Amino acid sequence: MGHFSISDLEQLSGIKAHTIRMWEQRYGLLRPVRTATNIRMYCNDDLRRLLNVSTLCSRGKRISQVACLSDAEIQAAVLACCNDAHDYHQQVNALLAAMLSFDEQRLNYLFTEAADKLGFEKMMLFVAYPLLQRIGLMWLAGTVNPAQEHLLAHLLRQKLLAATDALPTVPTSARRWVLFLPAHELHELALLFMNYTLRARGQHTLYLGQNLPVEELAAVCATYQPDAVVTVLTSQPERNRVAEFARAVSASCGEKLVVLYGQLARQEGLKLPENCVSPELMTDFLALIAQHEPETVAA
């Protein structure tokens, strides 16, 4: 399954196209097929092999040595690598290769190891998010199996829930945030991570999750009395209804701060209510939290 051009391989692996061609011609590393118009196309096995070879070369192995190995030997060598906690590119490649193989055990091990070495938040920012961006490129190319993406999303969701549950209890007197996804919106990972980062910083959250009609938000805010409301717009609402949706959220929360995250909230020409902000990156959201953390009073 999967048909990649050489430019797709370059984007997904980080290996330059001319290097891929050289490895293919000199070492027979990949086995592309040619289209009727004589264009090379590569399959999932080619991508997986290239990712693993890239990992070994980044660890100091010579391509001439690696190219002589079988797929099983390459995989064993990758598993035996001494991982550098700050070599994010190598970790992303290893995770992507494991996903393509439906290797749940390996995926779980790699996520756990990265979290142990980096801390959970850095693992999400520097490993998980770049991995999800790579998968997004694969979606655009039409070369990712939905089951592979579901496997990865399920594992990350489990990790986020477990990490959040392990945090200390936050008093209800802390600054309050409501987190929800719009009606019919099911892409939850970013919102789960936002929930984790808020709680890790001692702020109270009411996590409402997926598919909440905006009409229900006013009653929630009247009871919970949040200081801010957060939502992520990945596929919902429709692009031409985002401004209307933002106005409805703003009115429902009594003009409190509204955070709209996601590409739909950053479309060109979009006019948002004055109390709405749309951080471009997750690190921008973390900076926003810092702005709203209570000041420590010196003794």
From TrEMBL:
Domain annotation HTH merR-type: ranges: 3-72
SMART domains, alphabetized: HTH_MERR
GO MF assignments: cobalamin binding; DNA binding; DNA-binding transcription factor activity; metal ion binding
InterPro entries per UniProt: Cbl-bd_cap, Cobalamin-bd_sf, DNA-bd_dom_put_sf, MerR-type_HTH_dom, MerR_fam, Meth_synthase_dom
Pfam entry (one): MerR_1
SUPFAM superfamilies: Cobalamin (vitamin B12)-binding domain, Putative DNA-binding domain
PROSITE patterns assigned to the protein according to its UniProt record, in alphabetical order: HTH_MERR_2
Keywords from the UniProt entry: DNA-binding, Repressor, Transcription, Transcription regulation
Protein name (record): MerR family transcriptional regulator
Source organism (scientific name): Hymenobacter cyanobacteriorum
Taxonomic lineage: Bacteria, Pseudomonadati, Bacteroidota, Cytophagia, Cytophagales
